[in-house]
Amino acid sequence: MHISSPKAEPGRIVACLVALANSGETAWGGTAPVLRHGLTQVAGTMPGMFNQRGGYTVQDFYHDLRFWLECSRKTLFRTFIHQGGRRSIFRGVGDEAFIYIPGTRTDRVLLVAHTDTVWDRRPSYPAPVRYENGRYFSSVATQGIGADDRAGCAMLWYLRDLGHSLLLTSGEESGCRGSRWIMENNPDIAESLQAHQFMIQFDRRGDSEFKCYSVGSSSFRSYIQKMTGYTEPDRLSRTDIVVLARDICAANFSIGYYHEHTVHEYLEMAEWETTMSLMRSWLSGSQLPRHERVLARWGMATAAQDARQAVGDRGTRPFRQGTGQGR
Length: 327
What we know:
By secondary structure, this protein is an alpha/beta fold. It is built from twelve helices and ten strands. It has one domain: Aminopeptidase. Strands 1, 2, 3, 4, 5, 6, 7, 8, 9 and 10 form a ten-stranded mixed sheet that branches. β1 and β2 form a beta hairpin.
């Protein structure tokens, strides 16, 4: 069973995914071990539910981050599809697949993360993680934990109740293959993405930084700095938003992972939580402004221009696994 038609209705897609979960067949072809309790019981064990005091606890974060770092991509997709219900749009196969859950606010922002990791083809991935002194590490000495970008997926989960749109891509680690497939083969989604106020991706190492790459503007950068206090170290490299943000501005934020694509990768829980709390405060506000790309406004934005402006680790030279270069 493959769910790949751009014209498929969201309601039919969710119904197909329920059947898929119970049948044992994957949307990536073939068969694989599947949670036979399907989407219904997953709802009872989903991470990130508000506690009775109306907030989250450190224990919530601890368990939730473990969930996202240890779950399979199939489980990740099913969890978000169930959360979005009939608004969930799921299309594609493998590295050309995505989930899009349109937001409900008039001033909605698009929140982006990618579901793939550089370790996906390892038989031992995903593996249990270990927690020491506020950091998550892999329990397998020959691979990292995939916090790039499972930590970003966890961020979207914690922001899902704010009324903004969610986009989970695939194939980012293969040259933004999934986001290119969205823009080139799903024109309805490509247009819908440009209707947002701006885009935010959660796929950057370190703490308290953002990058707009080639898809920012002076006013948007000033706005980001004013609202978050984060700084932009440079405009090098690229990630999904460089492909997706055709008409509007976008920024990628630090979420606390380090040494991505190496066996020394780890996630700093406190830094992840800092960005999450900041985003909840900022994006809960009303009347978020729209920021359009200057080139797009004048009808001059091209892929070639983006490529020239995104010179750096992922601009003019290929990314090498294990080098620690990145977004």
